[in-house]
Amino acid sequence: MIDLRSDTVTRPSPAMREAMLAAALGDDVWGDDPTVNAFQQDLAERAGKEAALLFPSGTQSNLVGLMAHCERGDEYIVGQSAHTYRYEGGGAAVLGSIQPQPIENASDGTLPLEKIDAAVKADDPHFARTRLLALENTIAGKVLPGDYLQKATALARQHGLATHLDGARLFNAMVATDSSLEAMCRPFDSVSLCFSKGLGAPIGSALVGSHAFITKARRWRKVVGGGMRQSGLIAAACQYALDHHVEELKDDHRRAARLGEGLAAMPGLTVTSQATNMVFTQVEKGHIASLAAWLKEHDILLDLVYATRFVVHRDINDSDIERVIEVIKAYFDRQA
């Protein structure tokens, strides 16, 4: 089965499983799991932050990050297409009593600076208190430009706002720009990093920031049910991914570019975007049902709708990419 639905479908490698089995364990709620502690210290150093905190999911890591920055009745500025606003169940509003102020993302994934500036509320009891700017990198596979990040976070500081980055796929941005994790995290007060997508861990995300911020985040993690016991099993997988799988993301990007090139030649299908490990397409409505059935018949998993995302990951190889192109071409050849 060739599964292109998401990079969350990756399976841990045999070596990663061995690392998990060999992990020294303790009780992380008590703070004495040695594998968790070592991972958090290593990640914080690589990210250029004072501390890190392990979470079971990126949704929870982002939620706790927002709750650690904001109080009830506060507001965060966020993109309409951002996961923290659109795809994480409205957790900030439901559980944190934090009001989102969504802004339409530009075509490159950025939030226009003038719109951020205009969205900041006056210090007036009529308004929610604007406290935070939240960005996402990558977003729809696109890497936010470095100069934009500097300007956006500087603008936030001018308004007295904290800054948070949903870096679920920040490692993709890092290898795409040949940068370091420290450089990618530097502009932000906090960053959420995911290890269960392209890096192949079965579970695990982490939040990085200052000691004071992570101390506050640890309390909120407990409140929302994220306190784990022998979670060194998770930390070991994340550490293995961090040590061994980051550079391999370049192969995902190369394969996604090849897939985008192949799909661009298909009638009835338009490639609207290709960046890092993702290819976005539009399929003519008359082909959606029949192409979906054809792909399923040929053991290709894809969430085929009008606007369809192909996501390349470490469990997809070069021959898989050529197979997908071949199968889709055969479908359209039959329609001719």
What does this structure look like?
- The protein contains 14 helices and twelve strands.
- With 336 residues, it is α/β, with parallel strands linked by helices.
- A seven-stranded mixed beta sheet has the order 2-8-7-6-5-3-4, sandwiched between helices.
- The longest helix is centred in the last third of the chain and has 18 residues, at 318-335.
- The model has no long low-confidence stretch (mean pLDDT 96).
Can you tag this structure with a few keywords?
three-stranded antiparallel β-sheet; seven-stranded mixed β-sheet; 336 residues; alpha/beta; 18% strand; 43% helix; globular
Brief write-up:
This protein has 336 residues and is an alpha/beta fold. The protein contains 14 helices and twelve strands.
Secondary-structure element series: EHHEHEHHEHEHEHHEEHHHEEHEEH
Percent range of helical residues:
40-55%
Mean pLDDT rating: 96
Tell me the overall shape.
globular
Total of DSSP H or I helical runs spanning 4+ residues? 14
Structural category is alpha/beta
Q: Detail the poorly predicted runs.
A: none
Rg on CA atoms, Å: 21 Å
Determine the strand fraction and express it as a percent band: 15-25%
- How many DSSP-defined strands? 12
Largest sheet: 7 strands, mixed
Strand order of the largest sheet: 2-8-7-6-5-3-4
Could you tell me how far the N terminus lies from the C terminus, measured between alpha carbons in angstroms?
Answer: 27 Å
Task: Give the topology.
Elements: E1 2-3, H1 14-21, H2 34-47, E2 51-55, H3 58-69, E3 74-79, H4 83-86, H5 91-96, E4 99-103, H6 113-119, E5 129-136, H7 146-158, E6 162-167, H8 170-176, H9 181-185, E7 190-194, E8 205-209, H10 211-223, H11 232-244, H12 249-264, E9 269-275, E10 278-283, H13 288-297, E11 300-301, E12 307-311, H14 318-335
Parallel strand pairs: 1-11, 3-4, 3-5, 5-6, 6-7
Antiparallel strand pairs: 2-8, 7-8, 9-10, 10-12
